[in-house]
Amino acid sequence: MEWFQFKRAIPSIQPDFIFSIGSFQISNTTLYLFAIALFLFVGLLIMRPKLSTLPGKGQLMLEMMYEGVLGLIMQITASEYHAKKVFHILGALFLFIGFANFSGLIPGLTSITYDGISIFRTPTADFNTTFALAFGSVIVLHIVSIGDWGFFGHLGKFFKFKEVFQGFKQGIGAGFMSLIDFFLGLLDIVGELAKIVSLSLRLFGNMYAGEVLMVILIGSLAYAVPSLWFAMSMLSALVQAIVFGSLVTVFYMLAIKSDSSSEKRA
Amino acid sequence: MEGLLAILSKVGFDWQVAFANLVNFLIIFFILKHLAFKPLQKVIEKRKSEIQAGLDDTALAKTNLLTAEQKKEEILMIARQEANDIIAKAKETGDSLVVKKTEEAQLEYNKIITDGKKKSQKEFERMEREVRGQAASLIVASVEKILNEDLDEKQDKKLRERALDMMRQ
Lengths: 266, 169
Prior knowledge:
heterodimer, A: 266 residues, mainly alpha, two-stranded antiparallel ribbon, two-stranded antiparallel sheet, 5% strand, globular, B: 169 residues, 3 helices, 93% helix, 0% strand
């Protein structure tokens, strides 16, 4: 296997720190995300006054993304009311992950180094980014659930004391069934933690593995195969953004009441 | 919990970086919300309302066109009816006028003929009188010549009367 070798360093799974502000260390993914935020801010600030009912090419592209994401959320929620209600946060999540995934595929960008460390690293290939997104999403979902069910109603989804009391009131059989339901409710607390871990590890695993494989393929096979894998990575970047966003949308629909009173009011 | 953190640290978990990246996401969320989503939503809503207004206008124009065509047909029908009435009335008036004028012309004709006859008669009588007078004078003159004598006024008058009587006979 001597003919199969690569000379490029495999990106570290640990975050690479570029500099620190006091005791707060700034990683390359944080820097890249900040650069993306700055780019978006400047770009959209320039674009905003040019928005009109007769769109140009740039506006058309933005509108296509807007309509595409809104349509996807609407398909999952099967409700225009809920889709519009959560669009801003979920749309931002979709686009943020998509943009972050694609930003890692810009050729040459990760080769810019400072003190031997790549300044720009695919943000989603860092577990801290995906964890932050998953953690933030689950927190938002709990806030939404409290808003829909009320504080005690929301806690009642995990601690089903009322159901146990009512079950034993009906009879022994129903009581034992409600006890099982009670333990399942407790398991749901673990499920909430698992949501964070599964969401973050799925995205991170796919993106990090893709990045590692890209380095291996570019380092060992110079022609054809890296191009194919590059195309595959673009597809993966899009799919992972859709998967993460779709899962959070599904969790949102599970968090609210099925016959949401807020929808009826609207 | 420590065990979980230990496992997570193996994949590079660092709460400081995670927190910084979450803040970055929130910044991007606010940028997208205020500079992209809301303005785009406004533009799309405006375009939709403009398209809807255009469609409504088109539907209204179609309805107006149909109403106008119906009204046009009604007006044309009324106009045709009125035209027919006017033509019928005009024909009726024309016929009666022709009859009236014909009668008037006939009366005028008759009057002219009668007057002509009367005038002719008078003229004839006047001429007759003149001819007779002249003829009487001629006869008297002839008789005087034949007799070679002057008649007195009394004889002359008597002769004239006799000549006139003869001519009348």
